[in-house]
Amino acid sequence: MILLLLPAIPLNNNAITISPNPSGQDFTITLNGSFSWKVVDAAGRFIGKGNAINRFTTGDKLLPGLYFLVLTQKNKSITRTLIKL
Question: How far is CA 14 from the centre of its chain?
Fold first, then answer.
């Protein structure tokens, strides 16, 4: 499998909160407004996706490791790292 990362139009980084990170349980992600999200593991395998308004919680079933969270809002995207302990 080849993971192709294309340049994305960045979101305002100051508007995103991920807490806690690293986490032994779950992550709470906040971003004002409506947005979509996707999680992939370090090997590029799809883990999950969804839509949210203002906040969502994910990661309680993730195994320990490194993951990438892609947030998209109004055709702008940003990728953040999640570390599951």
Answer: 15
> What does residue 36 show for φ and ψ, rounded to 5 degrees?
-110, 160
Structure tokens, 83: 């570390």
Q: Whole-model pTM?
A: 0.83
Answer yes or no: are the C-beta atoms of 45 and 30 closer than 8 Å: no
Q: d(Cα 62, Cα 72) in Å, to the nearest integer? A: 21
For residue 43, give its domain range: 14-84
pLDDT along the chain (85 residues), means of 10: 48 79 96 96 96 95 96 93 97
Domain of residue 46, CATH code: 2.60.40.3080
